[in-house]
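Figure 2 data, in text form.
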Amino acid sequence: MKKILYICTLFCVIMLAGCDDLLDVTPGSELTDDGFWKSAKDFEGACNKLYYDLGGWSNDTRADELVGKSSDDISSGNSTIKSGNSNWKNRYSYIYVANNIIDKGLKASVAESVRDRWLAEAYFFRAYHYFELVKKYGDVPLILKIFTSTSDPDLKMGRTPRETVIQQCYTDLEFAIKYLPDHKDLPTSELGRRRVSTSSALGMIVRIGLYEGTFRKYHGGNDAAEHLKKSINAFERLDAKGYHKLFEDFNEVFSYKNEANNVNREIIFGKPYGENDFATVTTGHMNTRELEGNFALTRNILDLFLYADGLPMSKTALKVEKETSMNNIVGLDTDGNPLPNDKGQRDPRLLKTIWTFNDAVEYESFMGWSEAGKGKYHPFDSQRPKGYICKKAFFGSMWSNSLGNKDFTDKILIRYAEMLVSYAEALYELNGSITDAQLDATINKLRERVGFNIPLTNDFVTKNGLDMLEEIRRERTVELMAEGFRYDDIIRWKTAEKVLPVAMIGPYCSPDEVQTTATYEDSKKRLTDSEGKIDGTFAYDQQGVYVIEYANTRKFNPKRDYLYPIPTDEIAYSDDNITQNPEW
């Protein structure tokens, strides 16, 4: 914690002005913290640092959902205790920024309405980052002030109970709800359209309440119902505004083509990127094309997509019993034609989530330039991970262009679809049941949007021997796939111990669908045999599928791995007032 004290205050609260007029501050030697905090523009500029600190485009490979070019230490159970871990240090530096704005703002000589509007942003982000800490570490020190002296005893503070920290998050977010603008009233500029709003704060309460309620329900703990009620209430307050709704064209939602569209009411909160007035406030840009070469989806996760009859793989008659192409997973043959008798036909979202063999990798004209098509997709490219390459959020190439390799695709952090599946889950977890009307207002809206016209109903579940909670969780997983939710979900559901220490499976590998004979020969040693085994151990119920990671290389200790280890240097800085998590 002591390192937080030495963060440069000016850097934490002031983003240097660029060629735009986003932030007007006194220049040179006059730029001091004491000379700041005089106007709404000062507060706005200080709050811009909070957006700069948001995580950018990245891939979460900690679960069974995504794999990279090498195994993930957390997913495979090979994580170790580290000193100077950025998961801890960075979050506290971001919290320091928020605390500094709050501290200075409460003392500033500005109109109360101005002060509260910008303090609300700081309170939002403080809650946002504390929740991230709690998810990873459980109890964490709750620091609500800035440090002005190395002798401050709170520098060696121990861990604050999880419930106390979460209640502070709720308090901060309620302040934000009271003083932030409504989403419909946000400016239309690149920066303005992504500033936090009342909707953002309500969305965070929906998320936190669901996480905490289910975590306590399945891990043991008090007040699970109270947190679930918080989530439900926040959604109903959000929905009562009548502003947010699903974007109609799910093709554009999944490709993020309309992330920059101000009329896309599905987006509740996101990290903005922009060429103009936001260029000095964010990291500038992110190349989403690079993502396709760095991560891939597993067969483990794609098997959760329902078949065209609305049934899962374990129940359907549409499963392809003996695959001959990687395309069979979406009901197509190697030439892209539908298989006979609807075999393999799935929820339409699956086809929009992954590249298939011979899929045309097309790029869109954007920002005044375009690139010729990259050609057709072939699996098992040596430059990519050996899973299913993700099409979702792939928005043009942005690889070589007149703007200097810049991609200004915003990263969506909260969208209305998440709110719908969260509300359905919270209702079921609280009541042990959910009505058909509630399903129609949530999950079935998502299915309708994509043309998947098999509604989830209580009767359908009963007749087909399904489990309603499992189906609600399934809907959440497929809708939010590759958006950074899966690891948190399997942690709070306490299912990580079941889904992580197993083989990670990739596509069916055909010699006719790889680019070279050498590629196939290299892959053969990792393909399942006629009994679904590899090296004598069962891996998957198909012959010829690629095993990305062997089960015997993966483990999960349920007594230890549901929480991260506390970095050793933080324990030392606290004179051992901060204690280590169990079994680490």
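Caption note: The CA atoms of residues 55 and 271 lie 8 Å apart.
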